[in-house]
């Protein structure tokens, strides 16, 4: 299977029909292949996620990630300034995304008549074990670009079909409603009803046309074959880009020996995703033994593990390897936290000393965004806006803000330096603008990350690259983040007080 699969991937074999995307056809009957039908929408969604992953791994995107994103002040100060840690985190998340897509491709592949596609899970397993020579998988090859353009065209047509079906369903519901009132309608209204019926008939013809040009009428073999190729290409690209920073990935330049039968039986989502704490976190995080007399900490940069609890702090364990078996420890402040942990294992790796590990990343992001509105567009905030912002804070931050404000006003009363309210307010405004310049982007990306992952549960045909967790507040140091939020809120209160005094 490996040799024939490589012939298919490289296009070197002339014996394989160009419309067949994996070798080993197990049937010889002339019956027409099964078409996707209603599964066209899930297939289009999966294709969109694949294109999104493909675009996120281009040279331009990787260069932007290394030179701009990871070097930004907010990420360097709150998350980490260790390039190895951030790249390992990005690698783990991209592998997680690809694994989730591969699960869907494998499920759709079971409906294919082609043997190779039907056993996609075994082929993907071999790829992740390094059995398949990935040196022959060209990321930017012209054939791959043609496949991407073909997938984009079919996604667009399927999106039009989806919109047309939704519109048709609404019109048919309106028609049924009007039909119930038909006996009470006058001649003019009956004419309108005829017009609606004609319009529905036209939309039905349009839907049939869209079905013919979209994935609806495409065979399982053809569609899954396209996605299987891109899955292989993306995995090879991940190994090329992140391999120097993650020794757990197979080499793109070597073809390793055949694995043992024991390893071969592993589910493909487990293979090469059993990342140890030190492989993901490098020198940033470690396994920390917390005891009364012995505390070991090798972290030199990034968020500091929480020392308030005794016992072993584990970021990932063997029982968490299966994507369908994840616990839900302490998700507070975010109702979607438990679901997100089950769907994204990298999401659950954040330790308690981080904002995400405490389950309040979205809550703090909303606080920061609300504070940004108060500073830049105060006219959009109502009379009770300040109270609403204050109520968004957890109890510990409320207490900290009150204490810091009290100390500030006591100090100002003792100094009585004669400064007017205008100059004091402007001073605070400049300080807040400087903080929000690096803090607000993390909050915006946190909301975007959550929105993009929530859209994945519904029909979403957007193929643009998604936000990475390293760009959000999820892995931000909790103490540093809370200190920055307190400074922002104290500054807003001082601006409000000084301007009112003036």
TrEMBL record:
Domain DUF668: 354-448
Domain DUF3475: 38-93
Organism domain of life: Eukaryota
Pfam families: DUF3475, DUF668
An individual GO BP term: positive regulation of growth
PANTHER family registered for this protein in UniProt: BNAC09G50660D PROTEIN, OS05G0457600 PROTEIN
Protein name as catalogued: Avr9/Cf-9 rapidly elicited protein 137
Organism (species): Carya illinoinensis (Pecan)
